[in-house]
Amino acid sequence: MENKKVTFNDIAKYTNFSKTTISRYFNDPDSLTLKNQEIIAQALKDLNYQENKLAKVLANGKSEFVGILLPNLFLNYYSEMLNQLLATYETFGYKFLVFVGTGAEETERKYLQELLAYKIEGLIVLSHTISSKELASYNVPIVAIEREDEYINSINTDNYLGAEQAANLLIKNDCDILIHVNSEVPENIPSYDRIRGFRDTCEKQNANYEMILTDLGNTYNDTKERIKEVFYSIKDKYPGIRKGIFMANDTHANILINLIMREYGGFPDEYRIVGFDDSPIASEAIIPISTVGQQIDKIAYEAMALLVSLMDERKKRKPKPQTELIHEKIAPVLMQRDTTR
Predict the structure, then answer these.
(1) Which of 238, 299, 332, 336 could make an SS bond with 162 (beta carbons 3.0 to 4.6 A apart)?
(2) Residue 271 DSSP one-character state
(3) In Å, how far are 2, 74, 168, 192, 215 from 224, measured between CA atoms?
(4) pLDDT digits (tens, 9 = 90+) for 200-246
(5) How does strand 243-247 pair with strand 271-277?
(6) Which of 3.40.50.1000, 2.60.40.1120, 3.40.50.2300, 2.40.340.10 is the CATH number of 65-156+297-330?
(7) Is residue 53 over pLDDT 80?
(8) Following DSSP, what letter does each residue of 123-153 receive, concatenated?
(9) Quick check: 4 pLDDT over 70?
(10) Interior CA angle at 329 toward 306 and 327, to 5°?
């Protein structure tokens, strides 16, 4: 058997089972007794059988592939989320086809058509480009992470709670002015609650605050230039007082810290900074960044667990239609490091 491809017929002869029984082992193993499953499994080892995954897809339409659509990878949050999603293979056994979006609707629709052509069984979407209503029309189980999710299931961070944690930490650091730097996030995006939570907390605590909501760019170089403009604006507007700055994510926080370090030759006492995500860049920055930890590993696991449950239901002979969407929030964990004291 070492010099030729092992077939179902070879396995049948080796085990004295019919080819139909061997086929059932691969496509409906629960229809066989545990003893017969063990006999066939041992035969596969003895014969050094290598399963033809493509043939299996053609036979039953189940690819064991999940699609992932990301908006970019320059933000550390997305690259770490991808790492954690890929790590779920050991638990759930699904493989992944990954596309990184461009922000162009027609291009991302082509990506989705490519994924569907590969017979993906489910889809995890972090890109914001295609509406959830359109995504739902593709008739494949979908779980969204940190994006508009009116018509699809989702797993998100409790962004409001995270913003409260960030604002309260800066208040405890005796900051004279609290500043939140973010993009102009639409209200139907989960991360809008970072804006709302920060503003509400400052007003409840009677803290002086400013919201800087502006286009921060879609590439690393553009973002760096935009944050540079924001930094010099803050520096000129609030000289000599302690500024508590809550950045929208850890990548932005790290860019700001690098600008401060170049400007002052160190990290002056008049700055306090909090990021959001707790992606690896936060702990590995030249000055470790205080941040609101999103528990990215837990979000990735819960997203895959939910998607697997939806896909498993689809595989049943009489699947139950989903009557109510699932929107789960994961509590963030505040991580205090060197940018607050």
Answers:
(1) 332
(2) E
(3) 57, 12, 27, 22, 12
(4) 999 999 999 999 999 999 889 999 999 999 999 999 999 999 999 99
(5) parallel
(6) 3.40.50.2300
(7) no
(8) EEE--SSS-HHHHHTT-S-EEEESS--TTSE
(9) no
(10) 55
Neighbour-count burial for 230-265, b at 16+ CB within 10 Å, e otherwise: bbeebbeebeeebbbbbbbbbbbbbbbbbbbeeeee
Q: What residue ranges of the chain are covered by domains with CATH 3.40.50.2300?
A: 65-156+297-330, 159-294
What does the block give as tokens for 233? Answer: 């604006």
Residue type, 304: M
Question: Please, what sign has the CA dihedral across residues 197, 198, 199, 200?
Answer: positive
CATH 3.40.50.2300 applies to domain 159-294: yes
The whole model's pTM is what? 0.81
| One-letter identity of residue 226 | R
CA distances from 84 to 68, 263, 279, 296, 300 (A): 12, 36, 11, 7, 6
Count of Cβ atoms closer than 10 Å to residue 309 Cβ: 13
Q: Which residues pair with 276 in a beta bridge?
A: 292
